[in-house]
Amino acid sequence: MSLIARLGLEVPLVQAPMAGTSTPEMAAAVSNAGALGSIAVGATDVAGARAMIEAVRAATARPFNVNLFVHRPPVPDAMREARWIDALRSLFVEFGAEPPQALQPAYGSFVDDAAMLDLLVKLAPPVVSFHFGLPGADAIAALRARGIVLLATATNLDEARAIEAAGIDAIVAQGIEAGGHRGMFDPAAPDAQLGVMPLGRLLVRESTLPVIAAGGIMDGAGIAAALSLGAVAAQLGTAFVACPESAADDAYRAALAGPGGYATTLTPLISGRPARALANRFTALALGGGRVPDYPIAYHAGKALNAAAKARGEHGFGAQWAGQGAPLSRAMPAAELVAVLRAELAAAR
Fold first, then answer.
1. Which end of the chain is more exposed for a tag (fewer CB within 10 A), N or C?
2. How far apart are CA 150 and CA 33, in angstroms?
3. What residues have CB less than 8 Å from 154, skipping those under 6 apart?
4. Cα dist. 178→18, 153, 175, 264, 304 in Å?
5. How do residues 143-180 score in pLDDT, each as one tens digit?
6. Average pLDDT in the 274-293 region?
7. What is the Rg, in whole angstroms, of the alpha carbon atoms belonging to the chain?
């Protein structure tokens, strides 16, 4: 049975799981409209994840996706982190605030989160996806034993081969155009920065797994292009940021519709890992990537700086993640957007 049939999708579309932006309301609306809605629980704890999963389940009987961060635990470096705090100090002073005295990881990794694994095994959401890497074989086996469909992000062929060898059901091929964090397993390794079309085509040719294309796709014509190269579905994230069900604040929505959308950029400054964001004051900082603490330790400073700036009416330090297709964004309810994408796809085929 094909992946699309297995999930009962009427539209070959996955709403990307955007931590801090996608919501249970959005996921349920997308799933009810015939696509695959997603929530991201990597930035919350077990109680928060339970609440989110239960909220989606209460609003839809259709499949949905629960996404987890599977990054390598960060290596603390007190001197490096102190230098980073000092590099940002003048900005905190500008907004009448003091930087954190020390930095801590903003959240953990599924790699060593036994409690999160227990929750997922117990609740058995229809789909679970991994970003930044893969959990251990025992965790994968436990999830598969519950009949959960497993997805994982790859940014290159080696990662895709590891995903296939691990027994995952499908690959999300994340092109360099994609908004948010690069899903690369090792952020210190060279990044070929393949676009979604060459990457997707490469993985279709070299892997036996279904491929879901992700990166810069914003409309039905883009979905059709991905399908024409062999992908079974497309994953769209930035397209859903402007939906009313999104958790994006007013400043993020305004920035998405502004000139920064035409100049998205990859930066490690906000979180410690390369991530594509709307051009703003944070992405424009000339601080040098070499001093950034490990992900997600750096996020502690980034979040604190954003909070200090927002308190003074400055919204240019937010993590305003967006892909290169940002100028094509359309503000409408999630279910309506799925219907529009479905009609555009039909017209483009």
1. N
2. 22
3. 160, 163, 171, 172, 173, 174, 183, 199, 203
4. 12, 12, 6, 10, 25
5. 999 999 999 999 999 999 999 999 999 999 999 999 99
6. 88
7. 19
> Would you state the pLDDT for residue 349?
86
Are residues 295 and 84 in contact, defined by beta-carbon separation less than 8 angstroms?
A: no
E strands along 158-307, which residues? 170-174, 180-181, 211-214, 233-236, 265-267, 275-277
Cα–Cα distances in angstroms (integers) from residue 230 to residues 135, 155, 183, 208, 211, in the given order: 27, 17, 21, 12, 8
Over the stretch 61-110, which tens digit does the pLDDT of each residue have?
999 999 999 999 999 999 999 999 999 999 999 999 999 999 999 899 99
Asked if 210 and 347 sit in the same domain, the reply is yes
Instruction: Determine, yes or no, domain membership for 286.
Output: yes
3-class state of residue 266 by DSSP: strand
140 Cβ neighbours under 8 A, 6+ residues apart: 134, 150, 166, 167, 168
Burial of 249 (C-beta count, 10 Å sphere; 0-12/13-18/19+): middle
Residue 290 has pLDDT above 80, yes or no: no
Distance, CA of 135 to CA of 140 (rounded, Å): 7
**CA–CA dist 276, 321 (Å, integer):** 6
Please, what is the end-to-end C-alpha distance for the chain in angstroms?
A: 23
Question: Sign of torsion, CA 209 210 215 216?
Answer: positive
CATH classification at residue 49: 3.20.20.70
Q: Rounded to two decimals, what is the model's pTM?
A: 0.97
Range(s) of the domain holding residue 83: 74-107+258-327
Return the pLDDT at 289: 55
Calpha distance 240→301 (Å, rounded): 27
Classify the C-alpha dihedral 13-151-214-2 as positive or negative: negative
Examine residue 253 and state whether it is found in any structural domain, yes or no.
Answer: no
- Sheet order of strands, 180-181 included: 180-181, 275-277, 265-267
Task: Give percent above pLDDT 70 in the chain.
Answer: 99
Query: What is the domain count for the chain?
Result: 2
Express each pLDDT in 194-243 by its tens digit: 999 999 999 999 999 999 999 999 999 999 999 999 999 999 999 999 99
